[in-house]
Amino acid sequence: MVDLKQSVQYVKTVGPTKVAYLNNLNIYTLGDLLTYFPREYEDRSKLKAIDSIQDGEEVTIEARVVSEVSINRIRKNMIILKTIVEDDTGRCTITWFNQTYIKTRIKRGQTYRFFGKVTKVVNHFEMRNPVFDEVGKQKNTGKIMPIYPSTYNLSQTAIRQAVENALLLIDGNMPETLPDYLLTDYNLEGLESSLKKIHFPSNTEERLLARKRLVFEELLTMQLTLLELKGESQRYEGISFDKNVKMSDVINSLPFSLTKAQLKVLEEIDSDMENSKPMNRLLQGDVGSGKTVVAMICAYKAVKSGYQAAIMAPTAILAEQHFEEFKKILEPFNIKIELLLGSTKPKKKQEILENLSNGEIDILIGTHALLTENVLFKKLGLVVTDEQHRFGVKQRETIISKGEHPDVLVMTATPIPRTLALILYGDLDISIIDELPPNRKKIETYAVTKRMEDRVNAFIKKNIDEGRQVYVVCPLVEEKETEEQSADLKAVKEWTEIYQKQIFPEYKVACVYGKMKAKEKEEVMSNFKNGKIDILISTTVIEVGVNVPNASVMVVENADRFGLAQLHQLRGRVGRGKYQSYCILKYASNCSQVGKERMKTMQETNDGFVIAEKDLELRGTGEFFGTKQHGLPEFKIANLFVDMPMLKSVQSVALKIEAEDSGLKLEKNKKLRALVDEKLKQSISL
Ligand code: ADP
Ligand code: MG
């Protein structure tokens, strides 16, 4: 059997330079190369008659050369070669740029196959820079050609060659990864032939069959891994929180009544908490649906049952805000709450750590700082993570290990499609808050281009004069951006200058950004909360969770550069009080089609779940549930939008296997055991 872990350098045509380029693409081993799947395919197999070509089409034609190849030097560095070809139905001009060697390869009177894009020029067709073969010796035409994702310094030909040679290496000795019974029961092709056909299919049908098998394996492995993680956490005896501690005591003290959805979710959590199995629950809800207060009530239950609670947030700004909100509601119940950040002063930190381990502190709120080794609880009973993306499996494990099988509540900031949540968070139980607090006004959203700038500024002024506040968010400008890309992009500080000096000298403008000192950040945020700042310019550090009910306008500069989920999060910063709120998305009129679709979606809907569906559709790949989302490696081939039906059936397959052989110990599931072990290894090493 071939060793898939051997370095790519052993593949023919892959020398040291290519090894380096392949490494850039995360291809290190033979196995990596074989699973570097084509992004799309170019069908060069179908021959077309010249008179049936459409303008703009990519086609293969078989035609005889009827003129000598002419060479014209247009200007320095630009040589055009031109010839005329014909078949029984018509004529076509063929041009090449700068490829002077063509002159010696194309002979008048000979017939060739040409593949390329055809454009109509005045009254005839022209094919530019085609690849070609002599008839009967097809190498570049007559096939379905794989096109690989961005290959940097590697040409498509180079990567195709490498893959072709890799396939020769495995020929006849590729180990099968799925058990026979699955291949038979679900009518799946073997691995070796699937790999050959996914790279070089001879027709679409063949390609789809190969793809089906590879997607099946990828999704099944993920499902089995998630099920295993879930089973793992439930094997232990956890905490039964006190039935006599009533959540309603806090609920009745709130300045508002909870929505039906919040109450339903609390009921689910309450029953988990009283149950001795460790809770492992995902709390989903749209922006502003009131997840924080739910977490607070759970923390109350834990504390009054004699345990401590840890609340972990992805940013310091958010942790601070939680800290303030928790204190407001829970301190009257004689609960001691503390905040621990990376920036907490050593003396204060020491004090917190001491009081945490002797049980003085009931609830500790903080950032990743909570994960530090010397953070020790006396009796940790509840862990809540509030997060933009799920913390990695490893990080969750770290915080959980600070207690003895504590209950865990994971809150998502961004909703994910309902259908997918059930499947992709298979290691967690799910609660959904599917309703917003009453009297929330719909945030009006406008996507505008530069020429609306004056009106936008007048609108901002009007809102500030009415007593409101405004956010302006701009994208992070990365150093590696080219000049051309960043011509229109300004850093936060530049925007602040512009807004303060040029547009709104009469108002107070300030900025926050990630790299700022924690203390300064804190000060700016609290000044904004207190209304001392009218316009807050920021990067997406304010994306998640920030709550300033008086702010009513969210302006996003270069909005087309943001993803849908992010835009929805940003929009969720306004409309949190009683004022009608607005979101203004400034986009470049020449932005991509996808960018325009995003603007359209944002204007059409305020529903986070609908937006999540659309986001998935637009991205279409594993990107949406990338590494950061679930702590498992990204998909190499599955596309969660397209493969939804497959995902559903694979889930039932996984459940069946799990029911029969939990832990995958049976001989017939040995191969599945290996797949899951490999996946777990990858997710831990992340
Ligand atoms: P998110 O789910 O986005 O984290 P938050 O928990 O920050 O939302 O809640 C948004 C705002 O709504 C907060 O100011 C919170 O106090 C308020 N809120 C939460 N639940 C209710 C409710 N049932 N009625 C009215 N306001 C509520
Ligand atoms: Mg929140």
Form type? globular
Q: Say which CATH homologous superfamily of the domain at 444-605 is assigned.
A: P-loop containing nucleotide triphosphate hydrolases
| Secondary structure tally: strands | 21
**Helix share, percent:** 25-40%
For the biggest sheet, the summary is: 7 strands, parallel
State the CATH architecture of the domain at 444-605: 3-Layer(aba) Sandwich
Helix/strand-derived category reads: alpha/beta
The strand line-up of the biggest sheet is 11-12-10-13-14-9-15
CATH class of the domain at 444-605: Alpha Beta
In percent terms, what proportion of residues is strand? 15-25%
Bound molecules: adenosine-5'-diphosphate, magnesium ion
Radius of gyration: 30 Å
> How many helical elements?
24
Overall pLDDT confidence: 88
Uncertain regions spanning at least 5 consecutive residues: 479-487, 621-632
In the CATH hierarchy, the third-tier topology of the domain at 444-605 is known as Rossmann fold
Distance from N terminus to C terminus (CA atoms, Å) equals 29 Å
Topology:
Elements: H1 16-24, H2 30-34, E1 40-43, E2 58-65, E3 70-75, E4 78-86, E5 91-97, H3 102-105, E6 111-121, E7 124-134, E8 144-147, H4 156-170, H5 180-185, H6 191-199, H7 204-234, H8 248-251, H9 260-274, E9 280-285, H10 291-304, E10 308-312, H11 316-330, E11 337-340, H12 346-357, E12 363-366, E13 380-387, H13 393-400, E14 407-412, H14 418-424, E15 429-433, E16 444-448, H15 453-465, E17 469-473, H16 483-486, H17 492-503, E18 509-512, H18 518-529, E19 535-538, E20 551-556, H19 564-571, E21 582-586, H20 593-604, H21 608-619, H22 627-630, H23 644-660, H24 670-685
Parallel strand pairs: 5-7, 9-14, 9-15, 10-12, 10-13, 11-12, 13-14, 16-21, 17-19, 17-20, 18-19, 20-21
Antiparallel strand pairs: 1-8, 2-4, 2-6, 3-4, 4-5, 6-7
The protein binds adenosine-5'-diphosphate and magnesium ion.
